[in-house]
Amino acid sequence: MYLGQLAYGKRLWGKAQGYLEASIAIKPTVSARLALAKVFDETEQLQKAEAQRKLVFGERKRRRRTSSLGKQIIGHQMNKRPSADSAAQAGQQSGLVMKRTTMIPF
């Protein structure tokens, strides 16, 4: 990614494109895709630039959907935790004896 940005700054479009595509192949990131879109803009490959931008928006939507799904799952699991009352009721139904103790100050 860094080499692609460096090549872009030097206006070496072919080198920048190669480095950025290699970076995306290893680990696709939003910043690498946007930098590659800028290279495509400079080389007048507007359809390829637009395709990279669409991929960025697709990745962002997917991340949001995944993170909101994760929050829903975690929230659902938290709502399923038994309360102290339901645990006491389960203990009574199974024959276990639960005693309440109080601390006596010295």
What would you say this structure looks like, in words?
75% of the residues lie in helices and 0% in strands. By secondary structure, it is mainly α. Helix 1 runs antiparallel to helix 2 (13-26), helix 2 (13-26) runs antiparallel to helix 3 (30-42) and helix 3 (30-42) packs antiparallel against helix 4. The longest helix is centred in the middle third of the chain and has 34 residues, at 46-79. The chain is elongated, with a radius of gyration of 28 Å. The chain starts with a helix and ends in a 12-residue tail after the last helix. The mean pLDDT is 78.
Describe the structure concisely for a colleague.
About 75% of the residues lie in helices and about 0% in strands. The chain has about 110 residues and is an all-alpha fold.
List keywords for this structure.
75% helix, elongated, 5 helices, mainly alpha, 106 residues
What's the layout of helices and strands?
Elements: H1 2-9, H2 13-26, H3 30-42, H4 46-79, H5 84-94
Helix pairs in contact: 1-2, 2-3, 3-4
Give start-end ranges of low-pLDDT stretches: none
Number of helices: 5
Shape: elongated
**Could you spell the SSE succession in H and E letters?**
HHHHH
Sheet having the most strands = none
- Relative strand content: under 5%
* Sheet/helix structural class: mainly alpha
